[in-house]
Amino acid sequence: MTEPIVVATGEAVREVLPEQAVVSVRSESKGRSRESVLERLTQRSAAIGVVLDQFTAAIERRESAGLHIRPQMKRRGEEVLAYHGSIGIDVIVTDFTVLGDLMLKLGSEELTSVHGPWWRMRPDSRAGSDVRQAAVADALVKAAEYAAAVGARVDRLVEITDSLSDGGFRGGVAGAMMRSKGGGDEAQALELEPELQTVQATVKVTVTITEPTLPTA
Q1: Burial class (CB in 10 A: 0-12, 13-18, 19+), 55
Q2: Sign of the alpha-carbon torsion through 107, 112, 116, 117
Q3: Which of 15, 16, 88, 96 has its C-alpha lying 20 to 30 A from 111's C-alpha?
Q4: Please, which pLDDT band fits residue 79 given cuts at 50, 70 and 90?
């Protein structure tokens, strides 16, 4: 005789503070020659690096977002009017108390734009593990309630299926964008409040139950 089974869905949702903030830095240059544009971009990259070095303790990682140089051509013909170039750096910050100051200093660099921050959790965040365990516990409680409703009890776990395929993290960007044409030493302050991240999990558990005691018709 086939054992009776119960399938139950468990869910858990938590709101937690983000663990990382991603800031995108982009600097541009234009010139008559490819070499001059590359030289200016190299200088600006070094200047951005000097700013980032002031916040080493707050920065977890720096990632190059690419170097791009393209010619601007006449509408007809092969003559090059100018070259346009840009460099990009993504900065991952974990100390949010200095994040506003960092973004202001980056934005004050010549022909440099700053975008972000994008708040997020680490892929291996403990918050994800905790919420998945809570979802499994919720599903098992429901399975036990279903079994009790027919005079039985949970006997054996058959399967646990994770119904969420993207990790369960929900967050976004706290819109901020700064762009500067040149340096400046004006006293400024930028206060940024981390956006709470929604961590969620949905699972299905399949269990066998003892023989039900059904009421007679």
Answers
A1: middle
A2: negative
A3: 96
A4: confident
Same domain for 100 and 138: no
Q: Give the CATH number for residue 107.
A: 3.30.70.2970
Q: Is the domain of 154 the same as that of 73?
A: no
Which structural domain range is residue 156 located in?
A: 1-19+121-175+193-217
Give the pTM.
0.74
Domain count, the chain: 2
Q: Which residue has the higher pLDDT, 181 or 122?
A: 122
pLDDT, tens digit (0-9, with 9 covering 90-100), for 51-62: 999 999 999 999
